[in-house]
Amino acid sequence: MSTEFEPVAGSPDHYDADYYDNNGQAGDRPALRWYVRMVRRYLGQGPYLDFGCGTGHLLRRLAAHGPASGFEISPYSARMARETAPGCDVYTTLDAIPGGAFRGLTAVHVLEHLDDETVAAVLACWRRVLVPGGRALVVMPDPAGKGRALAGDGWNGYRDPTHVNLKPHREWRTVLADAGFTVVREGSDGLWNVPYGKLPKLVDAGLHAGPALAQFLAGRLFLRPGSGESSVFVLEAPASS
What we know:
One of its GO terms (molecular function) is methyltransferase activity. With 241 residues, the protein is α/β, with parallel strands linked by helices. It is built from 9 helices and 7 strands; from the N terminus they run ααβαβαββαβααβααβ.
């Protein structure tokens, strides 16, 4: 099986400057601070691999806590990640990632861009590159979550045409477990993409965003699955191959 892949919708070159500008993820953002705290709490020490590292801001933050590398299929993203996180390796094919080299792996909003066959290849790669018992933090949009219910057809997860694999939380749980990973912890990021209705943004935030803010400040995962915008999983690789 080839390990030089691309999503069903959108070639690697699609993920360019315009793509990141349009989805608001070209630069650093507050959510990355929460992800790093989650990594430190639930994944432990590195080395880390940020799988689908985008323009490199999470990779840069992880590198402040230990050796960190990235993976990207987009030439633009890989180039930007190397500039954002100088000194960090950024791999562009699965085969190039060294086996058994990482204790922690992050994949934040990656799997929804891949068809099921590619997801299977990626999960096999994760098992290969993680040390036995290594852990992964995985985040993807939840079309069965409360965020989708409140936003309706205007939900943020539907706005990206490269989101070709929008599974509900319970289905992703099955896919991840069937791939050999143990689900150590699971939950949601909460309701943060306000406003969800016609109320002013601050008023809507007061109604909906409090639990997400509390979880963000705590640096923990305690909101139940389905209660927010995204599914969040902490996975553990098998203790032996």
